[in-house]
Specification:
167 residues; mainly alpha; Memb_transporter_dom; Integral membrane bound transporter domain-containing protein
C-alpha cells in the first residue's frame, strides 16, 4: 500500500475520532439531545478542511468553512425566529441568504452557508432546541472540527515527511 493511502487513512481515522468526541462532548455539555449531531457536524467540518493537499490550503479552506458556518448560523437563527419550517420558505430563505452573500462579496461562502442553514433549520425542526442555541452550537462544532482537521493534517504531514518529499 502506498504511503499516501496510509497517511490519508490515518488522517480520516484520527479526524473522525477526535472531532466526533470533541463535538459530542461540547454539545452534550450544552444540550445533550443533539450531542450526536454535534459530533457529526464536527467530523464533517474536519474532513472538509483536511482534504486539500497542503496545510496552507487546509487553513484557507478552514477560513471559508468558519465564515460560511457563521453566515449560515446567523441566517438559520433569523429564519427560525421568524418562521416555522416549510419547504417553500426554507428554500426561499436559502436563496435570500445566497443573494445577500453575493451582494456583500461573500460568494465563496454560499455553499457552506446554505449547508449550515439546512442543518440548523432541520435540527431545530425535529427537536425542541432553542434556535439560537442550536445555531451557536453548530457554529462552535464547525470550529472544533476545523481546528481538528487542520491540526491532524499538520501533525501527519510532519510525521510522514521524509527529506523534501511530503506525502
Amino acid at each position: 500500500m502506498e504511503r499516501m493511502a496510509i497517511r490519508s487513512t490515518l488522517r480520516y481515522i484520527c479526524i473522525a475520532f477526535v472531532a466526533y468526541v470533541s463535538g459530542y462532548v461540547f454539545s452534550w455539555l450544552s444540550y445533550e439531545p443533539t450531542a450526536m449531531i454535534g459530533g457529526l457536524w464536527a467530523v464533517i467540518s474536519g474532513l472538509i478542511v483536511s482534504e486539500p493537499a497542503t496545510v496552507q490550503e487546509s487553513i484557507s479552506t478552514a477560513k471559508t468553512r468558519i465564515i460560511g458556518s457563521a453566515i449560515g448560523s446567523v441566517f438559520a437563527a433569523i429564519y427560525l425566529l421568524l418562521f416555522t419550517f416549510d419547504a417553500i420558505t426554507y428554500a426561499l430563505f436559502i436563496g435570500v441568504a445566497s443573494l445577500l452573500c453575493y451582494q456583500v462579496n461573500c460568494g465563496q461562502h454560499v455553499k457552506l452557508a446554505a449547508i449550515t442553514i439546512s442543518v440548523v433549520i432541520i435540527v431545530s425542526t425535529v427537536s425542541d432546541i432553542n434556535p439560537v442555541l442550536n445555531a451557536t452550537l453548530r457554529l462552535f462544532e464547525s470550529c472544533i472540527g476545523v481546528g481538528t482537521g487542520v491540526l491532524i493534517s499538520y501533525l501527519l504531514d510532519k510525521c510522514f515527511r521524509t527529506g523534501n518529499e511530503q506525502l
